[in-house]
Amino acid sequence: MYTTLKEVTSKAEQLNYTVGAFNAHNLEMLPDMIRAAKEQGSPIIIQTSIDTAKYIGHENFVAVCKSMATKEMVDVVLHLDHARNFDDIKEAIDKGYTSVMFDGSHLPLKENIMKTRAVVEYAHKHGVSVEGELGTIGGTEEGIHVGEDDKVYTNPKDAIEFVKATKVDALAIAIGTNHGQYKSKTQVNIPLLREIDAVVDVPLVIHGGTGVNEQDIHELINNGIRKFNVGTELLVAWTRKAKETFEETKETKSLRHNIIPCNQAVKEVVKHKISIFRNIEDRTLILR
Ligand SMILES: [Zn+2]
Known about the structure:
The protein is of the alpha/beta class. Helix content is 50%, strand content 17%. It has a single domain, classed as TIM Barrel (Alpha-Beta Barrel), CATH 3.20.20.70. Helix 2 (30-39) runs parallel beside helix 4 (58-72), helix 6 (109-125) packs parallel to helix 7 and helix 7 runs parallel beside helix 8. The structure holds zinc ion.
């Protein structure tokens, strides 16, 4: 089913797993990302940046996600990542996205609340979910760089006020992760996550998931992370394979010979991440 963030994270909350939110960097890789979720028996959140949405066309992302959700019988959410202005959000909602993120993390708390609230009002009227953000995630996203010294962890007291006043469906928190981190791994602040999870009752979101140690993922899920963003890892997998295949083949060879292996490489990453996100070991323990 083509569905919303609220829907898939509610189910994840009941069964204690997290839903992977994977950035589609082009249209080529999209079908295999959704097939990966189907093969793993999991819902998937496909997310796009504003620029990628404009490059491909919002309607085209919506059409592929909708048709594949129906044909493959898998729950697919189409989410707009890191939007900072209302017009971009309105465009995605009007063209059929089922979820949007308003990133007001750079604003003073009151202003972030006010603007997020306005987004929530518009989105909910259209049956669309909203993710808000509090605190700052390091690294570079959409050309905006946040250095180590400018990183601000999410304050649990602010989180209570923010969630109550805005009525967001999910909250992105800053607990030490960085956008675009690939080679090194980050030290996530689990005690802070526990503190936030104890006082806030909406699903929590991790950005910069590529930089998270895989052995930390269970701990994050067990403390309320219900949406787990992975972008860089897919980008690297596709590009590496593309360099290989385009280097090796003749220019007259059909393009699909070069591109199918790139999509397959992305599919393997998505399948692997979902296998961890399902948190099976932990759920087996609970069922016992
Ligand atoms: Zn992000």
